[in-house]
Amino acid sequence: MPLVSGKEILQAAKEGGYAVGAFNVNNMEIIQAIVEAAEEEKSPVILQASQGAIKYAGLEYIVALVKTAADQVSVPVALNLDHGTSFDQAMKCVRGGFTAVMIDGSHYPFEENVAIVKKVADVAHAVGISVEGELGRIGGTEDDISVDAKDAFMTDPKDAKKFVELTNVDALAVAIGTAHGLYHGEPKLDFERLKEIRDVVDCAIVLHGASGVPDEAIKKAISVGVQKINIDTEIRLAFTQGVRKIIKEQPNEYDPRKILGPSKDAMKEVVKSKMRLFGSSNKA
Description:
Elements: H1 6-16, E1 20-24, H2 28-41, E2 45-50, H3 51-57, H4 59-71, E3 77-84, H5 87-96, E4 100-103, H6 110-126, E5 130-135, E6 139-142, E7 145-147, H7 157-167, E8 171-174, E9 179-180, H8 191-200, E10 204-207, H9 215-224, E11 228-231, H10 233-249, H11 256-278
Parallel strand pairs: 1-2, 1-11, 2-3, 3-4, 4-5, 5-8, 6-9, 8-10, 10-11
Antiparallel strand pairs: 6-7
Helix pairs in contact: 2-4, 2-11, 3-4, 5-6, 6-7, 7-8, 10-11
């Protein structure tokens, strides 16, 4: 089916009390793995491309691949820009065929963050594209965006209420203790802070850096009110582990299809397990 807006998917998740996985894509095999998993699980899904992914694969390639994959299935699929850092980048995605954009102004002071997110939202909403903002700073590294632990800080619920009112975002990424990349130790999520944010904002709430967060913590976050959960690192790990396994067991193999095929299957299993965990299976 044709791509749908991120807002459409997240509004249904909010009403249904579940969360939808937003999985980062970089190439054809990753896209196929995610969309095939969604169809088999009968789950709505969000595919998202970071600025690094766009530089690597090309915006036109990503859009064409995702649209082709979505056309093959019966479940709702959205395409989101992940961690866009400029108005120009967001507009390229709006014009290029994305159905959702995240504009990350969290590195700016509050007023500047509001200004850039509102500017993007005013344009994107006019053409039916949903917008995600971020308040607070999530530590760790994702592609070309890196936040040291000393620069990370939690989302203030009072600021969250004001931010959503001023920007009219459809989704808000919050900092409650998660981080991008691999964890060193078990992350501790601030569920009381999350509840306070949920109580004062009406838009969807997004959890970034969810790869490696214990299942019980994910379930609790969803029960408190998270609707979108970003997963990237665990997919990358499944992909690279699959490649390493084939090369180790069959060192003379030179056919990319026989190397990447099993890796795609490994990624698909990770995605399906996340959909079951998030409660989105059989919700399409």
